[in-house]
């Protein structure tokens, strides 16, 4: 059987599953060292979890080894010429000079910080990056790092100050500053001051969805748990018809790609397509005329020279 499993879960912990996390870690329900303000933040995180919708998340068991032979037998469909297309994108990306190469989320953390701080910073940079250009995320991360970007430091920082530091990332005021504060409080109280090491638990944090969780598993833990599908990967996969049927949501694109793309390319494909989308296969007016894939790409073939 394929290593993929499907589970339905709430993407933020409620009181019950937060208790489960504590029990799993051998902790009592009592959390020590809570300040009045932090208790309020934890309560708020739990409250917001009640409002969030249930979503279906398909993800890989992080403990299973890939079984490519088995996958190959079952996979019935793959897009034509995809290997050639990938080689062409590698060629077009060989200078590695796209914004994601220099200022992507994997470039934002302090490489001299303790490992758990680096992991926390990786998660925060991914939270900031949603619907925000790499350059803006990178600048916000620099300001946060100058302020001090550790769980303890953010615990003692007011939400309004976080908002001030991360401006002008998108949704800086309405959601991101709040989610950073809530997530940080949960990490301290429920995850022993580190970020969790599974897609499921990462998705339980406010403001963290499947795309972010898979990218975080790679950047923070060096575990490839799935393909990180952002707006670039989603758009380009549909233009190239790398999905059997057009997909509306990035999460559907991720499932479709994982059904045929060899696992050893799952990590590379995100970086490859994000930079390609920033430089050539642009959201509006893609540069099809100068793209090496023009004759192989259904969208490119439809564009008049
Ligand atoms: S031909 Fe155009 S749409 Fe197709 S991959 Fe190249 S830039 Fe993108």
TrEMBL record:
It comes from the Eukaryota. GO terms for biological process: base-excision repair, AP site formation; nucleotide-excision repair. Its cofactor is [4Fe-4S] cluster. It catalyses: 2'-deoxyribonucleotide-(2'-deoxyribose 5'-phosphate)-2'-deoxyribonucleotide-DNA = a 3'-end 2'-deoxyribonucleotide-(2,3-dehydro-2,3-deoxyribose 5'-phosphate)-DNA + a 5'-end 5'-phospho-2'-deoxyribonucleoside-DNA + H(+). Its main location: nucleus. SMART domains: ENDO3c (SM00478), FES (SM00525). Belongs to the Nth/MutY family. This is Endonuclease III homolog. The gene is NTH1.
